């Protein structure tokens, strides 16, 4: 079956999950063939402000770039955050073709609230039902509980979020960073797949207060 046709078979599941869990659960279907316009189905997008044609998230790009899907079927129960600052409990299921290559992601984001434990347990059962072979779901994406994904509705915000996450690991302003530190930042961003986004080079160069040619040089550094 062609990748697009296979992904289309998951659209009813998007609606099924959203109908069961309710309006405080956002469900999306991503086509990773076009990371800049990856959302091909969505329910309750009001939660993150996303709609059809929105890009893959920073964490989605990282999962794609690092080929996390080769050793697991899903990443479950991690924290995400909307642009307005609301936190959600999220899970991502990898949709793969017959060659075990990733073609899409099914994402479930549940708004954290006093009754979230009940709906989280229900979502867990739904995600586990998708794990039809022996590959496990990874339930620990970080050693400590922290936000690992920013749910953004625009390409520019996805890039900004990815840059902020990496630069935030350094306890100093950009203007005081050494060349080696900037090289490390650029290479980390590259390892997380951010340069799959058109225009990311320009944005990173501006943020690091350097030129685009310098960013390309940093990318080729060992």
Can you tell me about this structure?
The chain has 222 residues and is α/β, with parallel strands linked by helices. The chain has two domains: 3-152, Beta-Lactamase, CATH 3.30.450; 157-220, Arc Repressor Mutant, subunit A, CATH 1.10.10. Helix content is 37%, strand content 22%. It has helices at 3-8, 11-21, 58-65, 116-130, 155-167, 179-191, 200-207, 212-220, and strands at residues 25-31, 39-43, 74-82, 87-96, 102-111, 137-138, 147-151. Strands 1, 2, 3, 4, 5, 6 and 7 form a seven-stranded mixed β-sheet that branches. Strand 4 (87-96) and strand 5 (102-111) form a beta hairpin. The longest helix is centred in the middle third of the chain and has 15 residues, at 116-130. The radius of gyration is 18 Å and the shape is globular. The model has no long low-confidence stretch (mean pLDDT 86).
Helix content: 25-40%
Shape: globular
Poorly predicted residue ranges: none
CATH architecture of the largest domain: 2-Layer Sandwich
Number of separate structural domains: 2
What is the C-alpha radius of gyration, as a whole number of Å?
A: 18 Å
Quantity of strands, as a count: 7
Q: What fraction strand?
A: 15-25%
Structural class: alpha/beta
In CATH terms, the superfamily of the largest domain is PAS domain
C-alpha termini separation: 41 Å
Major sheet description: 7 strands, mixed
What is the helix tally?
A: 8
What is the element string, with H for helices and E for strands? HHEEHEEEHEEHHHH
Protein name: Transcriptional regulator DauR
Domain YheO-like: 7-112
Domain Transcriptional regulator DauR-like HTH: 159-219
């Amino acid at each position: 079956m062609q990748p697009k046709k296979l992904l289309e078979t998951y659209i009813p599941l998007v609606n099924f999950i959203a109908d069961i869990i309710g309006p405080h659960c956002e469900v999306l279907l991503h086509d990773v063939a076009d990371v800049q316009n990856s959302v091909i189905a969505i329910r309750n997008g009001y939660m993150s402000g996303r709609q059809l044609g929105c890009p893959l998230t920073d964490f989605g790009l990282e999962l794609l770039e690092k080929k996390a899907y080769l050793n697991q079927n899903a990443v479950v129960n991690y924290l995400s955050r909307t642009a307005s600052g609301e936190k959600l409990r999220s899970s991502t299921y990898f949709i793969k073709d017959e060659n075990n290559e990733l073609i899409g992601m099914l994402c479930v984001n549940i708004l954290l609230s006093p009754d979230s434990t009940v709906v989280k347990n229900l979502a867990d059962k739904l995600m586990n039902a998708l794990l039809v072979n022996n590959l496990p779901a990874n339930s620990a994406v970080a050693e400590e509980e922290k936000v690992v994904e920013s749910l953004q509705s625009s390409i520019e915000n996805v890039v900004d979020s990815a840059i902020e996450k990496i630069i935030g690991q350094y306890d100093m302003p950009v203007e005081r960073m050494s060349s080696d530190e900037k090289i490390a930042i650029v290479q980390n961003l590259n390892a997380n797949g951010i340069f799959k986004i058109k225009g990311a080079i320009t944005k990173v160069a501006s943020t690091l207060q350097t030129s685009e040619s310098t960013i390309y040089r940093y990318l080729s550094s060992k």
